[in-house]
Amino acid sequence: MSTIQDAVTTARESFNSGITKSYDFRLKQLQALLQLVEENSELIEEAITKDFKKPTFEVNLFETTTAKNEIRNVIHKLKGWMEPAKVEKPLPYIMDEVFIHSEPYGVVAIISPWNYPFMLCISPLVGAIAAGNCAIIKPSEITPNCAEILSKLIPRYLNPKCYHVVTGGVPETTTLLEQRFDYIFYTGSSHVGKIIQKAASKYLTPVTLELGGKTPVYVDSTADINLAVRRILWGKCLNAGQSCIAPDYVLCTKEVQEDFIKSAKNTLKTWYGNDAKQSPNFARIVNSNHFRRINKLLNDTDANTAIGGRHDIQDLFIEPTILKDVNLSDPIMQEEIFGPILPIVNVKTAQEATAVVNKGEKPLAVYVFSNDKQVQDMFLKDTSSGNLLINDTMMHFSCDTIPFGGVGNSGIGAYHGKFSFDTFSHRKGTVIKKLDKVGEYMNSSRYPPYTKTNLQM
Length: 457
Ligand code: NAD
Known about the structure:
With 457 residues, this protein is α/β, with parallel strands linked by helices.
């Protein structure tokens, strides 16, 4: 464990030397990170496929290509982001310089999950580098091939004194959290998020917690059902449902439910044939613990299986499965599913659907499929969630001009695009006054002895 302490000490010494603060240094590190992804895409893709048979197309699109696009965008915008941000000047400061200076926090910890094991390490790292920090990155132990490749490549491409990968599981993360950091960026479950926040409180370290939860989908009869089904099932089947913003369950009327199921049968057959197990386009559950957890939710839920239901523990395969007429009290509705099972709960109206959403913890996202502006507006104003996406699933993730993050139980803080730069920067409000006699005339009323005339000035 001493290597963890050594890594943090080295990073702190490097940060204190000031090396990471210049534009040139940040730019070079980002260019090197881009080179890392460009030159090793195949190796990275192989490692992740080995970890849980994620289809190569999905790895390419959501891990390496997303990472490359993000780095290129930040390289393009970095200089502007580093400029002092001008603000409005209140009257008494009209003669002064007033601005916000973005300064790096220092040494940051980035602790990541297994479901997008490369991108969820790299994306926060891009923000940390852009903002001028040093970073210790802790990938998930559940995807060891990806963790290994990160620990080999990062020191080879980036300045090894500033950026270091720690591998391991709970004991290593616990040791890591005993160190003093200036910022902790954590992505993972809400349960572990609480452990992270508790550890951070020792040094009052600020945190971003990118957590999970049950993301609801509402579908009404104004929506084109075939399009809605394709977009919902795409979000549910991608990565075999193991995405933080995967649609967790559907709320709709009984009539919509029947149309939904009919359309879903066709869609799934077109995508995966008669047996999704034979399809190269469908990922596996990451390990046997998660397989058993999901399977137990399925077995304990006394609902009708409308589609799917087959599984194979040897292959960690769970078929895309749709459950109909599910009750809110069923086990599957008590926790984030994080697998390819989609329960449908019947509601009569959009108001009833918002009431269901509001009864649970605040979700990471809410998805609404409706062409009724009033319904869209109702979800916007009457529910609270990290993000809201109307008539699609997942796609808000790559819209980097809006913040991505949770609220309440689904997280604290947000990132992506400029929001990542801001997350990893302390925004130092700065006022520069002139030390001259003209300015001092404005100050004269604040000094003792206090008189009524002072107050009138
Ligand atoms: P996890 O919380 O089990 O693990 C995440 C990280 O925390 C890993 O690096 C792990 O080593 C570490 N960790 C685990 N237990 C720990 C403990 N007791 N003490 C200290 N560190 C510990 O999460 P996971 O299973 O890897 O990921 C799935 C969860 O992450 C889901 O809830 C999902 O919704 C969420 N998630 C959220 C986002 C987001 O952007 N909001 C993205 C991906 C996943």
